[in-house]
## 1
Amino acid sequence: MKRPWRDPRERANEPPRVPAPAGPPPAGPPPAGPPPAPRARSVAEVVARVRGLLAHEFRDGVVVQGEASNVRRPRGGHLYLTLKDRRAQLRVVVFERDLIGVPAKIEDGMQVVVRGRLDAYPDSGDLQLVASWIEPVGLGEREARLARTRDVLRAEGLFDIARKRPLPRLPRSIGLVTSPTGAAIRDVLSTIDRRFPRVRVIVSPVRVTGEVAAPEIALALRVLDRAAIADVIIVARGGGSREELWAFNEEVVARAIAGCRVPVIAGVGHETDVTVADLVADVRAPTPTAAAELAVPELKAIEGALDDARARLAAALRGRVRDARRRVDAAARSYGFRATGERIRERARRLDEAERRLGHAVEIGLRSRAERIAAAAGKLDSLSPLKVLARGYSLTTSEGQVVRDATELAPGDRIETRLANGVVTSTVESVAADRPAVAAGEGEAA
Amino acid sequence: VSEPKPAKFEDELTRLEEILRRLERGDLTLDDSVAEYERGIAALRACRAALDSAERKIEELVRAQGGEVELRPFQHEAWKPEPKREERR
């Protein structure tokens, strides 16, 4: 049999025992009347005694399960709550330092498991459980399942970088799997609206919290993908506790993401929340807003890039033409014009052609953006010599050959000048060549 | 009236970038340079066309009976009415 436990400190405070008075033992039944009043103890003494008993009885600690209620954490310090079931209540305190490893935010109504020691709080005499650990019921089991899911998916290669598909640079249509209410959809839509107001968004509304969330999200992803109406899919959810984001750790969601034929962007919770959905997605965005930013470019940036591309096209061609001119000029000087007249003429003709087109592009560059776009869209592909003539240029021929060099002509030669709306025939009176160059138009191309 | 689908912006932009790469190397013949330039302008035009023809719309995907998929108009305060597009010739 267990010896009744006594705290040695208590004993020290007790008055010395007084031996029973000597004499003959009382005969017969004890006298009637109230038993002698026990010695009165101090409150501190009793509470201390209770604390000692509790410490002894529960020296291995206790693990208690119940519903959390009246959860509060004044000034973000220690966490206080009342653990209850249908028949009883127990006060619980979790000191701040012990909250660090707690895996979820404890909220009213949650079923929790608490581990700790029992104590009586001397200032109030209340019984309380000083917890060293608290977690929602089933969390351990769920975390274990999460670890298994991760292992399985990783082994299947679903997290591999090589699997990640690039995002379209300009999607025509974006699928959005999220809650139709709340911050996430607002953030995504307003971000798309601000950056790229010319896109189609197809919302597939789902619940994102609770038991129903994972199957709903998975189904929405599959339906959206099968309908083949989106170039990219965003799956998003605003910030929340680990518990609230749990659906995005479920295997069914991960597999639905992996099964999509178009790239999927996951934007779940905040920066620090990394769910299985994030790992499987083609791109992981830290927040729903970031997901939207990844999904669409800025319209201004795209337009700027196209303007830039146009300028580079023109510059590259201009450079090539200048280069050709230098070589033709050099050829004209080295070999003597007459000897290689035909070749030079042929080269010069091609050069003129290039310059004419280039001239058009350069001219376009001077106009306003809207006009440039219109020009690029409507005119650039319909270049014709007549349009060049319409701008005031003319084409001079002599005996059916295009005249590019004044020295080819002599006084008395008949020349034909082609204008936009007709031909003028003239006779050359005099010739004044600047240099034996090839053709006019250098100033225009430069 | 069903308009022909604009060439994918993606493909045209890639084409444009390849043309720029070739053209900027400067080792093409003059004729090829001019041809590349014109192809570049065509790709650029296709990009702009894809941009201009992109539609702005927000819809909700609903599953009708029998597993059919339907699209319905969707409203959200964060999605403002279509801004006036710049008038383009």
Note: The mean pLDDT of chain B is 78.
## 2
Amino acid sequence: MMRADFAAIANWVAPQSQVLDLGCGDGSFLAFLQTQKPVHAYGVEIDDQRVLACVQKGLNVIQQDLEGGLALFEDKSFDTVVLSQTVQTIHQTEKILSEIVRVGKECVISFPNFGHWSHRLAVAMGHMPMSKSLPYAWFDTPNVRVLTIADFEGLAHQLGLDILDRVVLHEGRPITWAANLLGSLAIYRIRGT
Amino acid sequence: MSDLHLSRNTIHFAESLPLQSGAILSNYNLVIETYGKLNNDKSNAILICHALNASHHVAGPDPENPSDIGWWDNMIGPGKPIDTNRFFVIGVNNLGSCFGSTGPMSLNPETSKPYGADFPVVTVEDWVNTQARLADKLGIRRFAAVMGGSLGGMQAMAWAIQFPKRLAHCIVIASTPKLSAQNIAFNEVARNAILSDPDFHGGNYYAHGVVPKSGLRLARMVGHITYLSGDDMAEKFGRELQRSAGAPDEYRFSFDVEFEVESYLRYQGDKFSSYFDANTYLLITRALDYFDPARRHGGSLSRALAEVQAQFLIISFSTDWRFPPNRSREIVEALLSNKREVSYAEIDAPHGHDAFLLDDARYHNLVRAYFKKIAEALP
């Protein structure tokens, strides 16, 4: 099934552009993107099985750990760097954010919003939330950084990142008010300053 | 499972070959083995480039000696990752080698004696030129892929640089864009072992009816250490003593074989020195040393790869300390800076440099998937 953020992210990618998808998983997004518009793309992924899945789809994929930074990639060498539902799995948050704005002229970043009311309620009831956007039990989650929309915007400001655009979704539908309470998935278009 | 369609041929090249060194070889032979069938438009050919000690005999049983199975038989054959039911695969013995292609053991037409030390130094680029002439003879305008591991990977890379239009895919495994000082140092120890063997006779040992066996043996022992990982050696041999059944497991306080690893290295050295030619060992290690495509571009690998058109698959192995993953990443980085098509996989395997020859599911699945995509694009 197509993930809710795919279409929103694809909207922000220009045809004929150079795209780098960090934490590209099995290549679903890049495969989807290439059905939408002609782009030249690379994925980056650490997991063996997912790298294999990308090769099976005929995608360019580079196997590496994002914790190590993006030394393989030159400054401003991509029109769009995508970090789709990956930032919450990376320990070195500030480093990866500074790296993506170094490598990309623009970046698209999406993450599950821990601030959604159902998550807040779960915590209020004494349990870590499990939901469509946070589907893992606390003890086996790949997420190592949980954040809310307000948290992200705070850090973006602190790091001097320009937020160019924002889309907040819940169950695939756009949320236009009280986003940090009603949105379960946030997608930003940002760039460095 | 269908037939491998193995065919072996010696191909004569009557036109002279100018070498990178400036020397000219007036004519030469190359021995090749092919597997599978060339399709009508000759678009399904795969060239396999060999590493230091290998040959044209890539897959299947040797027609003359069926117990001798090709060096990459786990990779190439019917239904294997490189499926000979789809592809026409060519293994070629490189110039200067000792398995039938023209080399130091061959007769020099000018003297009617073996070339010996007079055989010219050949480079990776020279080999690629001879392989291109071979492709011409076979009517292959463009390879579906050129592939190799280690030194073979260097040849694949050189193909993409020298003949960018003549290969669709370039598969470079456990390789490097150039040797490090440490790599050259190991080669130098190996060459010194041969050069200082009293039976070497300045490379003209054929005339003396001897071979510098002890030098070659030592060269192979040193080389072999660099092909294995420390963990692999620990796992295989540890500190086990070499003892026959029932013998006490005690030190003997001697310089004979005490540890199993010593026995293994001696065995490998003996085996190798019984079939490999010392002059070829010198030549091939030198070809390794000299390979450095960035050198002509002010040290910029990115510029060296600027004109390549092939799609690349680069694979490295985590425990390879001869050509570690970092060296492969240099190639990836240079390709990325040129926005070329490239995929890179780093296989977490315990077997060091030798891993590229071994059967590892993650590695083989990846190569299989990659070649499946190549096959799908064929007519």
Note: The interface with chain A takes residues 313, 329, 332-333, 336-337, 339, 341-348, 362, 365-366, 369-370, 372-373 of chain B (CB under 8 Å).
